[in-house]
Structures are given as C-alpha cells and as structure tokens.
Amino acid sequence: MTASEQPKPKVLLVSDRTLSAGYRVLFEGIFATMQTRQVPEPAMRYFLSPRIKTDKLGRAKAAALGLRRVESALLRFTDLNPDDVVCTTPESLPKMLGPWVKVVAFSSSDPLGMGMSNTTTKNFWKGELYTSYWTRQTLQQITEAKRKYGFKVVAGGAGAWQWKRRAVQKEMLGVDVVFDGYFEKAGPKLFDDLINGKETAEYMDEESTCIEQVQPLKAPSMLGIIELSRGCGRGCRFCTMARKSMSHIPVETILADMKTNVATGMTNVVSSSEDFFRYGATGVKPNFESLCGLLEQMRKIRQLSFMQMDHANINTVLQLTDAELCEIRRLLTWRCKTDYLWVNMGVESANGRLVAANCPGKIAPFRPEDWEEMVKETAERMNRTGFFPVFSIILGLPGETRDDVERTGKLVEYLGRKRAVIFPVFYEPLSSEDVRFGIEDMRSEHLALYRACYEINFRLMPRLFWDNQRAGGVGLVKRSLLQALGRCEVMSWRRTFRRLGKQLARRQAVEEDVEVCGTI
Predict the structure, then answer these.
(1) CA 71 – CA 219 distance, rounded (Å)
(2) Residue of 340, 273, 333, 277 whose CA lies nearest to 305
(3) Hey, which CATH number is domain 220-337, 3.30.450.40, 3.30.750.210, 3.40.50.2000, 1.10.405.10?
(4) Using one digit for the tens of pLDDT, what is the confidence trace for 444-463?
(5) What is residue 111's DSSP assignment?
(6) Does domain 1-214 have CATH number 2.60.120.330?
C-alpha cells in the first residue's frame, strides 16, 4: 500500500481483542471471554479467539455490534464520511494511527475484569482475565500514540461502568471520556466537540435507549449479532439495563441488519435482547403476534441457517402457552437444525422475596412466594416445547442467608433432573457503595451449591457446545479439540473444588473455635 493509499480517518473505532474475534457461535465467544492467562496466549489468539480479518486498508470485516452502531450514528448525524470513520482491529490499529486521527473510541464488555461471570472464573482460575489484559495492552498502545499525535480517547461499551468504579485506571490508561449507555442521541455531538477541540465532560451517561435514532448497520457485526430490543427496566441492582425501559428495534431495521450480515457470507445470527420473548410488547406481557411476525420475516431471508438467542425472563415464558412456545420454536428452526436451542434466564435464588428485594420488577406480575415453583414450571415447559434452558444463580446477593443458599441448592438438584444447565456467579455490584461477593466470602454451603451446578454442566455443556458448533458450521477438527480442552478443564475445576473444600473446612473450623472461646 502506497502512502497515498494510506487511510487517514478522523475517528478510529476498536474493541478489546476478545470482542474482535471470528467466533462462529455465541458460546465460543462466551467461553473465550471467561478465560484467564492460565491459558497460553497463542492458544487464545489463534484457536479460542481467532482474529477478525481486515481488508488491505485495515478496515475490520466484522466488528462488535456496539461499534457498528457508533459508526452508523456518526455517518448519519455528523458531517463525517465513510473515509473518516473506520472500525479496525487491535492488530491493524498501529498502521491506522497518525496525525489525522482526532478520536479513538475503545469498546469492551469487561475492560477491568469486573463482570459477574468473569470475576467468578477469576476467583477459581490462576492469572488475569484476558478481557482486562488485552484491554490494557491496547490502551497502552493507544496512549503512546496519543502522546505523539494529541487525539482524544473515549471508552464505552457494556463495561463502561467499570471505569467509574476505578477512576485511577481510567487516568493511567489515558481515557479522556467515558461514555456509558446507548450512543445515538448524545454521542455524535460529543465526537463533533472532540474533533473540533472543545471541552467535554469526562463522564457521560445516556439514560434513554435512543430507539428513535437507531440507524441500520453499514457493515457486518461480529457473530452476526442483531439487536431486537434495548433496555429491560426490571430494576435488578446488578444490571446496567435496570432503569432503562424496554423498547424495540423496528422490524425493517432488524431485517436490514440481517441482510447486511448475509451479504458478506454470514449464515448465522445471534439475537440481542434482555428478553427475547418480549419483543414487540409494550409492558411485561409478551406480544406473541409481534414476535412471530418478526420471525416469519427473518425466515424469508435466504442463506440464513442458524438462529441463536441470548436472554429471556422466566415470567415472560410463563405468560406464553405451550402452543405459542412450540410455534416460536418452529419459527426458530432454520436450515441447520439444533437440538440445543438455548436461552439464558436468571433464577438468582430460590427465595423469591430475596429476588424481589434485589430485582424489584423481575417476578411481576407473579408473586414472590411463588418464585421457586415458577422456576420449576419454566424448566418443564421449556423442555416440553423444545428449548434448552440455561439458568443462572447469584451467590452473595445482599440479604442472602445460609437457608437461602441451601434452599437454592435443593432447587438446583431439581433442575439437574431436567434438560438444563445452571451457572453460578458471584455478586458484583455496579456501585462502589454496595458490597461485592468473593471467594473469601464463601462458606461450605456456597461451595456445595457451586459444585452441584458444575457437575450438571460437566455432563450437558459438552453436548450443547458440540450441537451449536455443528449447526454453526464449525469444522469437526476444531469441535473435537475443544471437547478435549473441555475435558481438561473439567479435571482442573474438580481439583480446584477439592482444594477449596479443604481450605473452607479449615477456615470454618477456626471460626467455630474462636466462637467457642468467645463464649467461655
């Protein structure tokens, strides 16, 4: 490439390396972002998280959905043109930097390794999480160029809240502005101001979902992810979507985004929503007709083979009939059939009153005292109608008692007899005023619950992973290698559980001796 061909964008958009990878199915991405540096870096870079390709100018052939939304908004609401705004990769970033750059925007879902799923892994595995390690690497590289060229650095993405919790690291890593929330309303003016050298706030919070300003994607998203809805509004104290009421992307925008992905050869789609089954609803009651209408339109797009979901809500599932769930399952059966069409739903605890205290809108319109039975009924109905539930529970919710943990353990035993997996995570608050839960806070009943969940997962997750990868077009060799890696991880997890069990037993024995001495 000659000097005249060198791209000279004013705005560069880049994500941390775990969000700049060529995953074929969603669980590959989830699996990769949970890894620590206990996994050798070459294995991460070239096998678990293979790099996204770029064209000869350094433009990423696919990028994290959030960056694609930023790109589309800047091209619609500012005077910037496609040559001015470039989504690139961490590997191609160095050749893109120069005196022409005015803003570098960096996105990560977990920049400082504080996400609930990832902190749980970090408690049990050695080494730093790759999300935070690669974030630091990329931002140090950006900061070095910033000293030379004088551009501004904006940090955003789903993990933007972490920069507020750890302002010192924001300064150390050269972040000028943290943008938390959806971009379309206030983001374009912020970038205009930065490009023109104007003073801006160091932290910007966008409370709305900006749904009226959403623009269709200009280029493919990583994993073929498409937004169905934004926000949730159920008030969970550990979720960034807690205060944002759910609003829905128009059907025509969703279809346009899917066609953009398909045009470049993608055949798989991942839906992004805090509650898949609530698409088109105006409140907490699902709108079956709207959701089916969308799915019917999706099925008309040729070359699509496999649809994956992410999140749903237990009470939404229970407001749909078995016949309606079966119809939705039929509409989600595309060219490549999957036996494990999974959807993640938060159980949090068997104690509905504890759940209601921490997630005020999660159980409505049902009663907190019915929560445990609601979870059981959801597992049964999802099994009956062809879905595979992936449940999550939270250890250390504020107000949790030993009885709550033991009660949740009995619920997990019940779910383990169904076709489902259960992932336990440690409570990680969004606010520094709240108290996090770590491995140092665990008691024997926590470990027993954790182990019970993972023994279920050890049995069923390999089948789910294999099935999803097969439907997603992952080759036999890679599938087999990942299964072998999974078996090694199972052995490692079990060794860790045994070691931790001995440590907890010794610690609790000491605590009991101290209590006895204190009563004498």
Answers:
(1) 9
(2) 333
(3) 3.30.750.210
(4) 999 999 999 999 999 999 99
(5) T
(6) no
Q: What are the strands, taking DSSP E only, across 181-305?
A: 203-205, 225-227, 229-230, 247-248, 268-272
Burial class (CB in 10 A: 0-12, 13-18, 19+), 490: middle
Alpha-carbon distance values, 256 to 215, 261, 370 (Å)? 10, 9, 41
What integer pLDDT is reported at residue 516 of this predicted model? 53
Q: Using pLDDT thresholds of 50, 70 and 90, give the confidence band for residue 4.
A: low
From the CB of residue 459, how many other CB atoms can be counted at a distance below 10 Å?
12
For residue 13, the SS3 value is strand
The domain limits of the chain are 1-214, 220-337
Distance from C-alpha of 44 to C-alpha of 31, rounded to nearest angstrom: 11
Structure tokens at 15: 């994500």
The two tokens of residue 147 are: 């000293």
Q: Decide if 238 contacts 90 (C-beta within 8 A).
A: no
As a whole number of angstroms, the distance between CA 161 and CA 180 comes to 7
Residue with the two structure tokens 């005292």? 369
Task: List the one residue out of 337, 474, 401 whose CA is nearest residue 31.
Answer: 474
Task: For 447-466, give the DSSP string.
Answer: HHHHHHHHHHHHHHHHHHHH
The token duo for 192 is: 């205009």
pTM to 2 decimals?
0.93
What are the CA-CA distances from residue 389 to residues 36, 270, 457 (Å)?
A: 26, 16, 12
Phi, psi of 244 (to 5 degrees): -95, 115
